[in-house]
Amino acid sequence: MNEILFDVTPQMDEERIDKCISNYLEDLSRSYIQKIIKEGNVFVNEKPVKANYKVKIDDSIRFIIPDSVEPDIPAQDIPLDIIYEDKDILIVNKPKNMVVHPAPGHYEGTLVNAIMYHCKDELSGINGVMRPGIVHRIDKDTTGSLIICKNDEAHNFIADLLKKHDITRKYRAIVHGNISEEEGTVNAPIGRHPTDRKKMAINEKNGKRAITHYRVIERLNKFTYIECELETGRTHQIRVHMSSIGHPLLGDEVYYNGKCPYKLEGQTLHAMTIGFVHPSTKEYVEFEAPLPEYFEELLKKLR
Known about the structure:
By secondary structure, the chain is an alpha+beta fold.
């Protein structure tokens, strides 16, 4: 059983309790939170409440997540594109259409299944059986470099770097439109979309600090090829930020309302460069994942 305690801030005032918890615990779906509330495991000022209860400033919320039955996550012999490996870390180039870690109802074919086969028992266990070795993630249709931690010491070290925003993360993307300036920064908080749980959005009231720096690499008629560097790492950050300034990612079916003129599987976004202080040597290391073939071919067409 896991118990979470927090107090309602002015930004949360008058929100429904299920929405409030959903914004506070982004990894949990609103339907799951409603189920927990219905089971009597959510208390406000030590009194159980219903899902439609509206929170008030300084309310004390206690949320109990019951122990779940650990699913059997199989190790699977799925080919990995390994950029670097040592006793502490593994850097992989994640392909398109691969989910990073299992989720309820989807326990096979993920990156976790693949690294469990490759690393055997050498994976950090901090994030539990569903996410062994996983310290950060990228979207299913985003390709590129990802750090896998092979022991708890490395995991804690890398997690601390992520928390302090001390990891270099540079992405390549193709966006709609011709960006007029050569470079720029989007500084806008990101949180859950107010009506669509599958989307993130610029959320001044409940969002978390999010900063993306971008620069133009090449102008391609109706599109622009750019590099984005993350200062923070929020869910869908680049996709939300670029869409917010009128330049959504080519192929993004979530944050672009128009029809994609090319046959693509999701957004054109590639995590190209990742750099950090190594957990053992304490020296800065940097790795680069080459652009996937589909991305290179698309650039040729656009040129």
